[in-house]
Amino acid sequence: MEGPPVASFSLTHVHYNPADPISYLCAWAALVPQGLCVVYATLIWSNREIEILLMFAGQMGCEAVNWVLKRYIKEERPREMHGKGYGMPSSHAQFVTFFSLTLTLFLLFRHVPHPTETHTPFSFIQRLALSVVALAAAAAVACSRIYLNYHTPKQVLVGCLAGALFAVAWFLFTTYLRKAGWVDWALDTYLARLFRFRDLVVQEDLVDSGWARWEERRLRSLTVQGKKRS
């Protein structure tokens, strides 16, 4: 008696050539979008920053646009690839392009960190260097889709273009939300206060979050211990 048909969960199932080291690295690169979603969820839960939540909302909107474009264009994947689904535009390329370009726009145009007594934030040059690394990593992920024969060069280029256009549009939209006071309004709502969302990362580095309070508490504790010993 034959068993039921078996399907592959394509979200994490990646075809690659085990004899090719580059192909192996490309297979790992295919997992970058899933890894970034975990990073999003972790940062949102741990830091409750509205800027990260807005970025994640834009990321999901970009994915929705990709879903619509694929079903509208209906272009097949390369013949060498036996995977399911349409290939135009590449969702991986669109995902990482949106992420890296949105991060770049934030670091260079919105993030204005102030130094504190315990922390010196990244300079503009350092933030620029970090942006270049993010864009280069996105380019590597996009190229890996061509190397693994999941997409044609045209499908990857269109994915990068769609991700870039959506990133710029989303950044302009969120800039309007900030200037018009909608972000401040949202942060004053019951739900935002219930989940303790805040808007500090625009002017503070994430690494400095809570550090000043910790240093103050630590020094106070050392002072108390010193008085007890004396």
Automatic annotation (TrEMBL):
Its main location: endoplasmic reticulum. GO terms for biological process: lipid biosynthetic process; protein N-linked glycosylation. InterPro entries: Dolichyldiphosphatase_PAP2, PAP2/HPO, PAP2/HPO_sf. It catalyses: a di-trans,poly-cis-dolichyl diphosphate + H2O = a di-trans,poly-cis-dolichyl phosphate + phosphate + H(+). It holds the Pfam family PAP2. GO terms for cellular component: endoplasmic reticulum membrane. It is found in: Endoplasmic reticulum membrane. Pathway: Protein modification; protein glycosylation. Coiled coil: none annotated. Residues 52-171 form the Phosphatidic acid phosphatase type 2/haloperoxidase domain. Its EC number is 3.6.1.43. GO terms for molecular function: dolichyldiphosphatase activity. It is a multi-pass membrane protein. Belongs to the dolichyldiphosphatase family. Required for efficient N-glycosylation. Necessary for maintaining optimal levels of dolichol-linked oligosaccharides. Hydrolyzes dolichyl pyrophosphate at a very high rate and dolichyl monophosphate at a much lower rate. Does not act on phosphatidate. This is Dolichyldiphosphatase. It comes from Amniculicola lignicola CBS 123094.
